[in-house]
Every structure is written in structure tokens, then in C-alpha cells.
Design goal:
Its main location: cytoplasm. This protein is α/β, with parallel strands linked by helices. Helix content is about 25%, strand content about 20%. It contains 15 helices and 27 strands.
């Protein structure tokens, strides 16, 4: 077996395999690389020694049995026998479900989560969007402080556990997308700087020195990230990647890393014969993120649409603090704008940023499924002081309205785990740092941050307290109780409608029509022969819809949260308070 490591500044390098030291030699064809041939089997422990220093884990480690600080282990990917013959599943027509392995069940493992995947298949989900699974310190955490970008968190079940999870999902017809973090690596257990210039002081990000995408040595760093991304798709048969905060990837090169990643992923998709979408998280409001490479874009396949979320959130809650201030003045007008133009900020002034922000989307050229729409995500819940979901403050009727707008809207819809039954469990920020100083810094920093916004610091959950993670685990008894069971049935009904009615999958943003009244808190959306109406107000509303497009008549009620009659001959819909309906013409 070939062991290799990139360490361009090292004067010497060695391999320690199963406790035995072995010398490594410079690779004559690849400057900065060191190699050694040795017999090894699946599970054998090893590490690298630079300049007679301590043993360090392999930067490209496929397994870290003892966590980020321990030695690496050999993984034989061919040893796993896949059960499911899987042809893949693309984004058009998809319904995503964001899932965190550590809190989807009390056990917090791949196998425990896999046992619950039947719930998602029955719900009508098509793609499970896993939050990061790379190794991080301790047992429990969000996963965004991973350090071994080719390995799998051992407490979740390690490489074999992830394969069993993906295999089970595919057997149920579910695709699996993985969240990967290329913009930073969590400080604890991060040994990459000892090996080479993986980071650069040329740029700074909220996490410190930037990942080196454009400074000297960046060719190898980019290859490291590309290789990691492709390995997830190839070795674990994953169906796509969600790319965390791509706006934080500082990259001034003419050919950007994201374009390279897009091209390499498309090539692998062609080789494997199945779609491999890349979904970006970006706050730039820039359509070039998903514009094809041949048209001058980055070539990613979809991007999260926070503008849609922010408009929907302010319409539902009335919140105005922080970045919600940009959307709170007329949230239904903003929601109507996003549903027809994708971005609210498309060259408009952002009071939160103090400047103009965004770029217009051409609705005639950009398919609606390239934007992911949602009412809740891990960020929008977990980054709140108490990790409270919408269900903590909204009535079941308003939760139903949110579901209707997400699941009948033009974008690729995404749910956050438990949303489908209005879970009352919070989803709070939790960590398990093994470094006491780092743990205290995170604890005090979070309390200081929210204290500055008026929260009593003692009310902010301690991220290091195991109870914080325990509170964040889903309660699987809830879906059998009211009002949760009724809301779950509503989500199932809406997803079934989306699957059955072509108008709800129409990718043409330019064909969406809206009418709204912010003062009366009501919104109507036309999608082909369908109309969706929501009344967010605490009193009944009369909503003028007019007659059907092809003939006069009352129309048909396809789904309604509360009993409602179709519009009368005058085209007036009488909708109960905090309620919604899906109608068909004629």
C-alpha cells in the first residue's frame, strides 16, 4: 500500500504504521510529497512524523478511531458490500430534509437515524441533507468544526456506519446529500498548518486566516479539497454536496475553486452515470453562483435562498431585529418579490449591511429549482439565543401556512428535521470541546454576544452542558399526539400534491403571479391552474381571486388547513383566520 503526504517545508518525513517507524522518501515527480510503500490492512493505525517530531494524523485520513488527535486508520472501501442498486436522483422535483445525525435520535448514530428513514420516505422526502459528519472533538456538536475532511466522525458510526445509512436510504428511494465545510476548519485538532500552507494570512475570515485558495501552495490545497469532495461522492455513494458559506471562500484566482469543483463533480457524475448536484450556501444574492460555467457562472446546481426565508419569517413572526429589519417593513411584498424574482436584495439597499446588495436574477433563464426555499434551517433556529423553532411561538395554523408557501412555492423546498410535525424541542448550539480553555471561550463568548442584545447571560444555554444537546434531540412520541399529528398529515398532503401536480414543479419563475395585502396579512399565489392563498391574520379574510383562467366558476379545493368553500361567482375567497388553501381552476 502506498502512504503519501504533502509536507513541502519538511526536511524529513516518516511513517509510523502499527507502532513501527518507517522512513519516507521524497517523490521525484511531485515536489513537496513524501511516500512509502508498506503492507497494511483495513483498520491498521498509522501516522506521519515530520522532522523527528510527534506522530500526527494523516491530513487525508479516511478514519480517526480515537478522534482528531489520535492516529489515523486504514480504510478498505472495497470491503463494504453495497445492497442497493441505485441510479441516483436529481434536484428537479426534489424535497430536501435537513438532518443532524447527533440529534435526530437520542442515540445520535447513523444506525439509529437509518432506522427512522422510513418516516421520511412515507412523508414524501426525496433527498436527506446531512449536516457535516467529519470528525470533531468530543462526541456531540454541530459538525462545523470538523478537521479531517476525508474521514467520518467515529461516535456516529465511522465510515461503515455512514455507508449503512446511505445504503438504507437508497433502498427506500432516498438520495443523500452531505454538508461539507471548506471555508474553515475547527481550531481543536487541526494539524494541517504543521504539514503545509493550508491557510494564508493574505485573507481573513470570521474564523481567522483563510483557507489557502490563491496564495503560494494553493494548487495542492485546492487538490486536497477537491479530492475530499469527490471521495464523499465516490466512496460513500453520496448523491450531492451542500457547500457551507461559499461567500467566505477567499479566492482571487481567475479560475475559482468553485468552478474547479463544479467541473470535477460534473465529470464524476458523467463517469458514474448519476446526478451529483452541488448546493451552495451563499449570502451574496448572486445568480452567477448557479449560472452554468459555459455562460460565465460558477456552475453550481442550486443555492439556499435566505431572502425567501427572511421574508417568510418576518411575515409570520413580526420580528424586526438584526438582518430581519431589511424585510420587516412589508414582508408579504418581499415574499411576493422573492417568489417571482428569487432574491429580495437584487441591487437594493440593505440597511443591515449599510450598502446596496445583490444582483437581479433573469427569471427567463434561471430555473426555479436552482433556489432552495425553507421556513427553518439549523442556522435560523440554532443561531437564536434559545434555539427556539417557529413552533415555540406560532399557532398550528401559521405553521400550516408556512408549510403551504414552502411546499407549493416555485423553489426546491427543504424542511428542517421535526418541522413536519411542529416539533416543540428546541435546537440549540452545543459543543463538546475537550480543550477546557476553548470550551470556556465558546461558553463566555456566546453569552456575551447575546447579552449585548438584551438577553440575561444566565438564560443562554451552556453549549458544553450535555443537557443542551439532550434538549435538542427530537421527541419521536410527538408525531403521535395532537396538534403534531394533524400538522404531519398536512405536510404529507402538500408533498403529495407537489409530486402529483405538474404546475407545482414548473421551473419557470416568470410564470408565477402574486397578489398581497401587507396590512391585512394575506397573500395569493398563482401557479398555472393552481392558486394558493394564505391568511396570516387572526381574523377571517375575504380574498379576491377572480374566476378561473379558462372558464368562470368556483374552482376546486384541493387542500385546506381549515374547512373552506371555493370562491363564489364573484371570485371572492372567504378564508378563516390563520389558514391556507390550495385551489384548482374549474
Amino acid at each position: 500500500m502506498l502512504f503519501e503526504v504533502w509536507a513541502p517545508d519538511a526536511g524529513s518525513a516518516g511513517l509510523r504504521l502499527a507502532g513501527e517507524p518507517m522512513p519516507m522518501e521524497p517523490d521525484p515527480d511531485r515536489p513537496g510529497w513524501w511516500t512509502a510503500e508498506a503492507e497494511a490492512a483495513d483498520g491498521d493505525r498509522y501516522g506521519f512524523v515530520l522532522d523527528d517530531g510527534p506522530v500526527r494524523p494523516d491530513p487525508r485520513s479516511r478514519r480517526q478511531p480515537d478522534g482528531p488527535d489520535g492516529e489515523s486508520a486504514v480504510v478498505d472501501h472495497d470491503a463494504y458490500t453495497w445492497r442497493s442498486d441505485w441510479a441516483g436522483r436529481g434536484l428537479p422535483g426534489a424535497v430536501l430534509y435537513e438532518l443532524h445525525i447527533g440529534t435526530y435520535t437520542d442515540e445520535g448514530t447513523f444506525d439509529a437515524a437509518a432506522a427512522r428513514l422510513g418516516h421520511l420516505a412515507e412523508l414524501g422526502i426525496t433527498h436527506v441533507s446531512l449536516m457535516p459528519v467529519c470528525p470533531f472533538p468530543g462526541v456531540h456538536g454541530w459538525g462545523y468544526e470538523g478537521v479531517s475532511l476525508w474521514a467520518v466522525h467515529e461516535p456516529y458510526g465511522g465510515p461503515e456506519g455512514l455507508k449503512r445509512f446511505v445504503d438504507t436510504a437508497h433502498g427506500l428511494g432516498l438520495a443523500v446529500v452531505l454538508d461539507v465545510v471548506h471555508n474553515h476548519l475547527g481550531p481543536s485538532g487541526n494539524y494541517l498548518p504543521l504539514f503545509g500552507p493550508y491557510f494564508t494570512e493574505t485573507h481573513h475570515t470570521p474564523w481567522g486566516a483563510a483557507v489557502n485558495l490563491d496564495a503560494p501552495g494553493s494548487d495542492e490545497v485546492r487538490a486536497f479539497l477537491l479530492g475530499s469532495a469527490l471521495a464523499w461522492l465516490r466512496d460513500y455513494r453520496l448523491d450531492g454536496l451542500r457547500l457551507d458559506a461559499v461567500h467566505a471562500l477567499a479566492d482571487t484566482r481567475a479560475l475559482t475553486f468553485l468552478e474547479e469543483l463544479s467541473a470535477a463533480t460534473d465529470a464524476l457524475a458523467a463517469e458514474l452515470g448519476r446526478p451529483l448536484p452541488l448546493i451552495a450556501e451563499s449570502d451574496l444574492c448572486d445568480p452567477r453562483t448557479t449560472t452554468p460555467r459555459e455562460e460565465g457562472g460558477l456552475g453550481l446546481h442550486a443555492q439556499w435562498n435566505d431572502d425567501f426565508h427572511h421574508c417568510l419569517h418576518t411575515a409570520l413572526t413580526g420580528e424586526t431585529q438584526g438582518y430581519y429589519a431589511d424585510f420587516a417593513a412589508a414582508p408579504l411584498a418581499g415574499l411576493a418579490k422573492t417568489m417571482t424574482s428569487a432574491f429580495f436584495h437584487n441591487g437594493t439597499y440593505s440597511s443591515f449591511r449599510g450598502r446596496t446588495h445583490g444582483r437581479p436574477v433573469d427569471p427567463g433563464r434561471t430555473a426555479a429549482h436552482r433556489f432552495v426555499g425553507y421556513a427553518q434551517t439549523h442556522d435560523q433556529i440554532g443561531n437564536r439565543a434559545l434555539g427556539d423553532r417557529l413552533s415555540a411561538s406560532l399557532s398550528p395554523g401559521l405553521l400550516a401556512c408556512a408549510a403551504a408557501l414552502v411546499l407549493t412555492g416555485p423553489f426546491t423546498p427543504m424542511l428542517f428535521m421535526g418541522e413536519e410535525w411542529g416539533a416543540r424541542t428546541p435546537w440549540q448550539f452545543f459543543t463538546d470541546h475537550t480543550d477546557p480553555e476553548l470550551a470556556e471561550a465558546v461558553r463566555t463568548g456566546r453569552r456575551r454576544e447575546f447579552g449585548a442584545h438584551g438577553w440575561a447571560q444566565e438564560d443562554i444555554p451552556d453549549p458544553q452542558d450535555p443537557a443542551t444537546r439532550a434538549r435538542s434531540c427530537l421527541d419521536w412520541d410527538e408525531p403521535r399526539r395532537e396538534p403534531h399529528a394533524r400538522l404531519l398529515a398536512w405536510y404529507r398532503e402538500l408533498i403529495a400534491l407537489r409530486r402529483a401536480l405538474p404546475d407545482l414543479g414548473d421551473p419557470d419563475l416568470a410564470s408565477v403571479r402574486t397578489a398581497y395585502d401587507d396590512g391585512a396579512r394575506r397573500l395569493a399565489v398563482r401557479r398555472g391552474d393552481l392558486r394558493i392563498a394564505v391568511n396570516l391574520d387572526a381574523k377571517p379574510a375575504a380574498i379576491p381571486l377572480g374566476n378561473g383562467r379558462h372558464r368562470a366558476g368556483p374552482g376546486r379545493v384541493l387542500a385546506a388547513w381549515l374547512p373552506v368553500d371555493p370562491p363564489g361567482p364573484d371570485g371572492m375567497l372567504h378564508l378563516p383566520a390563520e389558514s391556507c388553501v390550495v385551489l384548482a381552476d374549474g
